[in-house]
Amino acid sequence: MTLPQKTVLFDLYGLFMRNQSDAAKQEIEKAAQLESLAVEPVKFWQSYRDLRAPLDAGRINFAQYVSAMGEELGVTFPSWEAIFEADCESWRFHDDAMVEWLYELKDGVKNGEHSARIALLSNIPAALLAKIREEKPWLREFEPAFFSCGLGIAKPEEKIFTYVVKVLETTPDRILFLDDTKANIDTAEKLGINSHHFLGIDGAQKAVAEFVAR
């Protein structure tokens, strides 16, 4: 019996793309005019996180997202467009070492060093995805790439993982999933998917090397 092809399934943000810096967050706070609205930053960021899933899943657009935050916080933000631009800017920086490793992994397939697919599963809003696709040609190296905004579901929902397994025509034990968010790792492991909680490139490289070798 022929086993399904192995797949190394990466998250995007926190691995290849950098998470928001403190400076970038401050720019979002300025764009939202938190000081003039008397909104505490800690409450803003709590709302920002709590209401993000429908945006990531493509069920609402950014204007609706900002409106929902305003409703929860009891304010009306002067310009959702300003928040949008600052938000996109905060998510546009990549990690050079990780991108270099991506190319090495793809070269490994071409050179016969391993036969694993190098795939991607990312939570990302549609408008942000459109922007970074223009700037990051290396995104095309992931084959296939799954984006939450096009699926209507987002991590850590079980449905997004079962969908990926089905599309890949594989079994959970033939996948290694790498993500920096523990909740996503927990869901994947619950479904029998091999997982690595990403804390840095060294540990990730070791986990991938062991997975493709066995």
UniProtKB/TrEMBL annotation:
Short name of one Pfam family: Hydrolase
InterPro entries: HAD-like_sf (IPR036412), HAD-SF_hydro_IA (IPR006439), HAD_sf (IPR023214), PGP-like_dom2 (IPR023198)
Gene3D superfamilies (alphabetical): HAD superfamily/HAD-like, Putative phosphatase, domain 2
Domain of life, per lineage: Bacteria
Family annotation (PANTHER family): ALPHA-D-GLUCOSE 1-PHOSPHATE PHOSPHATASE, FLAVIN MONONUCLEOTIDE HYDROLASE 1, CHLOROPLATIC
Protein name in the entry: HAD family phosphatase
